Amino acid sequence: MPSNLIRKSCYDPATKILSIWLVTNGRRYDYLDVPPETYGAFSRAFSKGWFFNRHIRSSFTLRQDEHGRTAPPANSAGG
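Above: the chain sequence. Below: its structure as tokens.
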């Protein structure tokens, strides 16, 4: 089901980084140390926006650059 909040997401199990692109601003947000089980539950969630807000947004470290900005767009594909 399409999300009103999440435009795109991708997960790297090797680094445990979950990247989320928001519909509202198109920016990418990288969340660190996300367990595979959490990503699995996120990917199966009926409402990805609800799951993100409830279980990811405030539960995992958001990676930012030295200027306090979130990571630049990635070249990886996701869905």
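The CA atoms of residues 5 and 23 lie 5 Å apart.
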